[in-house]
Amino acid sequence: xxxxxxxxxxxxxxxxxxxxxxxxxxxxxxxxxxxxxxxxxxxxxxxxxxxxxxxxxxxxxxxxxxxxxxxxxxxxxxxxxxxxxxxxxxxxxxxxxxxxxxxxxxxxxxxxxxxxxxxxxxxxxxxxxxxxxxxxxxxxxxxxxxxxxxxxxxxxxxxxxxxxxxxxxxxxxxxxxxxxxxxxxxxxxxxxxxxxxxxxxxxxxxxxxxxxxxxxxxxxxxxxxxxxxxxxxxxxxxxxxxxxxxxxxxxxxxxxxxxxxxxxxxxxxxxxxxxxxxxxxxxxxxxxxxxxxxxxxxxxxxxxxxxxxxxxxxxxxxxxxxxxxxxxxxxxxxxxxxxxxxxxxxxxxxxxxxxxxxxxxxxxxxxxxxxxxxxxxxxxxxxxxxxxxxxxxx
Length: 394
Ligand code: F3S
Known about the structure:
The protein is of the alpha/beta class. It has helices at residues 5-11, 17-32, 51-67, 85-90, 95-110, 138-148, 157-166, 195-209, 224-237, 265-275, 293-303, 318-323, 325-332, 362-372, 381-389; strands spanning 38-40, 43-46, 75-78, 133-135, 168-170, 182-188, 213-217, 244-245, 260-263, 283-291, 312-316, 337-340, 356-359, 375-378. 43% of the residues lie in helices and 15% in strands. The strands form 4 sheets. A 5-stranded parallel beta sheet has the order 12-11-10-13-14, sandwiched between helices. The mean pLDDT is 95. FE3-S4 cluster is lined by residues 79-80, 119, 139, 232, 287-290, 315, 343, 345-346, 363-364.
């Protein structure tokens, strides 16, 4: 790989062992994927913040980096952690878990990362179209590439952190225009009834598209939050890191000879059957990915005059929560909680004795059984409000 003089010096350790280690990680990654150079990045978004998913190995690695004097050199945001203040009380977490999580956060802070603690950092720090990024968190990656028009690969936690420190990333994959061309035409031959059907279709597309960029035909007029959830679902169904909407690709026609798949009601129904059960939920969770203001406004409207009768957690970022206190008040007047810094997937819901979670997110439905041993009922935002307001069979 070609390195500039400055990069060579950094790799040789002239600027300290922290930057040297970050450069070693990036150069190794670049060599592995055939990159010819490193690119400067505008920001990094780092995952592996929740102690539940990162574990003790992350603490040791970060302690080492701090001792080496490593520090982020570009804007570096953080994914959700394991709890917010309100939840740590509710979950009655053991002291060991609370202090390990706090230690992880303190280490990331020492490395100069911003405590955004959200999977939607783009609502606070929106990258420019065409800018190069090094983001982990698959849902944010697909949003950045597909909706914002920024350029990022789907980084892992260590490579995103290394990019945060070095301010660079190897030039391969989705940083290169030729790899952003559609590789699969997906024809939507049905009209989704709600966001759950749309996102289940997205999950299915993720499964069939593998590494290809899918070009979606037949989807029109989707809102920002619907697109956000569509990308999150695709990224959890498979390795999708970018999609293109034919509606937004102007007059460009699908390239000749593109492989084509159809997504109809049958595919959506079977995806929903695999991910969802029809059981009575003991917890309702919305905000995977973290809610936007638009979603909070919808929720405030649906919850007006209602009283919530089952635990109802709505996850968002500190930034979004602080930007609309009136919506948060309206939602919490019903008894629902607007929670920041975490989500049900990376927190310890199993400590609450929860068996069934209702949510509108196929991504959460995919991960929750394995991570927390709970079953999931997929239901739209509107249905989740109904479920939360009803008493249930028990
Ligand atoms: Fe975000 Fe948690 Fe879902 S990190 S994308 S809300 S699993």
